[in-house]
Amino acid sequence: MTAKENQEVLIKTYLKPLLKENGYKTIGNNWWKKSETFFCVINLQNFSFNSKDTVDFCFNIGIALEKFVADKTKKKVTGYDIAIPCREQSFISKDRQEHKFRKNLGFHIEANTNMEDFKTEFRIDFEQNILPKLESLNSIEKCIEFYDKMPLWKDTFRKLVEKNK
Q1: For the chain, the helix, strand and coil percentages under 3-state DSSP, each to the nearest 5
Q2: What predicted TM-score, i.e. pTM, was given to this entire model?
Q3: Pairing, β 25-27 against β 30-35
Q4: Which of 140, 118, 147, 112 has its CA nearest to residue 57?
Q5: Which of helix, strand or coil describes residue 106?
Q6: Is 24 exposed, middle or buried (0-12, 13-18, 19+ CB in 10 A)?
Q7: Mean pLDDT for all residues in the chain
Q8: Which DSSP string do the residues of 27-65 spell out, in sequence order?
Q9: 98-122 pLDDT, tens digit each
Q10: How many CA atoms does the CB half-sphere of 139 hold within 13 Å?
Q11: Which end of the chain, C or N, has fewer beta carbons within 10 A?
């Protein structure tokens, strides 16, 4: 299989079912879950330099405040709706920042990647790091605490929360 086909199988057979099981809705490579007056959003981003033989991708993850979601029916939430998008490294422990399949840009798949090994590492990143941290953002106060740890975004997120009321 090509690298792109490997990624598509991973998304279809592992990622989409995992996120659905955890209460996320999906359209394309966007997943979201409603909570109070906000949505927890996960957006898979592929890079333009990808080829059939090598695929690099990352996740834009964050909070979409209800008032600012582009689709006023709230039936579709995308990565563009995230107030302050963070890459997955904001949700992954320091010891998981880099490994065989994860480097600076995010995750890396090649045509000859052992997908069982990839899935094992990906599962650790997603099930033990990303999802638990995202699930802990279950109130607007917890979201504020999360962004308060990022000096660059602290005040911006607080202002957006005020406008969302």
Answers
A1: 45, 25, 30
A2: 0.94
A3: antiparallel
A4: 118
A5: strand
A6: buried
A7: 95
A8: ETTEEEEEETTEEEEEEEEE-TT--SSEEEEEEEEEEEE
A9: 899 998 889 999 999 999 999 999 9
A10: 3
A11: C
Question: Quick one: which of 59, 57, 51 has its CA closest to 19?
Answer: 59
* Cβ proximity of 40 and 66 under 8 Å: no
Q: How far apart are CA 33 and CA 39, in angstroms?
A: 5
Pairing of strands 54-65, 106-110: antiparallel
Structure letter (DSSP) for residue 109: E
Q: What is the CA radius of gyration of the chain?
A: 16
Both tokens of 139, joined, read 């109130």
Nearest in space to 29 (alpha carbons), one of 11, 44, 18: 44
Find out whether 54 and 39 touch, Cβ atoms under 8 Å. Answer: no
Residue 77: DSSP 8-state: -
Q: Where are the domains of the chain?
A: 3-164
Look at residue 99 and give its three-state secondary structure. Answer: strand
What confidence tens digit (pLDDT) does each residue in 12-51 have?
A: 999 999 999 999 999 999 999 999 889 999 999 999 999 9
